[in-house]
């Protein structure tokens, strides 16, 4: 004889009634029998009914009977297996992550907000009972009306992209949340391109702060999603000036905080070799571009007065005279994830293969 706890039956019934409520919305004005929404368990143990204000419970569990079993909205539920099947259909589709949490399948979300609210509450109860920890809920922009429902249930904003918003929920009340925070950094690159005449490729931006109006600067920009540092530098120079280049080294990088939207910033200064010299500016971002003698570039008042940028130029000049060596990318595969990635380092001297040394390379 199977036994099912009252809390399980109650949870099922609440969720079912939520569906009934959403089902009845389009049919307002159409009489629906109260019996259609009633829920009753045969036998003396308990009685649950939606057309009364009372719920009487005499014991903490309900035992199956040999004749009619459990009855829920006129459906005989003969066993715990069947009740579990009904419960699963009233929960959100989700799968476990590797950290003891769950990820809701955003492709199988109910379109009806009433159904979503009911299923979300039932799912949270189920995940809490199973000892789950973090919940990741991705809501597509097409279903943005579900966002306030999730927030009301205690979910918090994690991050947003063009097509979705990501929400999270930490279940254990006695433990601090271990869910990782949103991305904390933006990544930018600057291209130091020097030709055989010892001229550096510089630009004037069309939109800039009044304090740097008229400044000739290096081509700069942000790295795109899933883009390498070296390819991003080459792309930015091409987009802003039309000049083709080849990546050589990362000369230095700057780490700053509270730069944009309270995010930190990583800015990589890259040395590039020019493969062409014809300039075709990007009229949307760039006001002007040209090849400028390095000595003239360094003598600009704003460059001389900025300690950090002055040091960057000094490093670049040291690299040209082989007094400094930057970092070059090396593609390696880690056994941790089995994926290729770029490790940046320099090789001063390789006795086995001198070609591996990036420090002996001439730029001019």
TrEMBL record:
The UniProt record lists the EC number as 3.6.1.13, 3.6.1.22
As its record notes, the protein acts as a catalyst of: NAD(+) + H2O = beta-nicotinamide D-ribonucleotide + AMP + 2 H(+); ADP-D-ribose + H2O = D-ribose 5-phosphate + AMP + 2 H(+); NADH + H2O = reduced beta-nicotinamide D-ribonucleotide + AMP + 2 H(+)
Superkingdom of this entry's organism? Eukaryota
Primary enzyme class: hydrolase
Instruction: Please list the GO terms describing molecular function.
Output: ADP-ribose diphosphatase activity; metal ion binding; NAD binding; NADH pyrophosphatase activity
Is DNA repair among this UniProt entry's keywords?
Answer: no
Q: What keywords does the record list, in alphabetical order?
A: Hydrolase, Magnesium, Metal-binding
Asked if the Swiss-Prot or TrEMBL record annotates the protein with the keyword Glycosyltransferase, the reply is no
Sorted alphabetically, which InterPro entries does this protein's record hold? Nudix_hydrolase6-like (IPR003293), NUDIX_hydrolase_CS (IPR020084), NUDIX_hydrolase_dom (IPR000086), Pre-Nudix (IPR040618)
Q: Where is the Nudix hydrolase domain?
A: 184-314
- Cofactor needs: Mg(2+)
Function field: Mediates the hydrolysis of some nucleoside diphosphate derivatives, possibly using both NADH and ADP-ribose as substrates.
Q: Which PANTHER family match?
A: FI03680P, NUDIX HYDROLASE RELATED
* Family membership noted in the UniProt record: Belongs to the Nudix hydrolase family.
This chain belongs to the protein called Nudix hydrolase
- Protein source organism: Arabidopsis thaliana x Arabidopsis arenosa
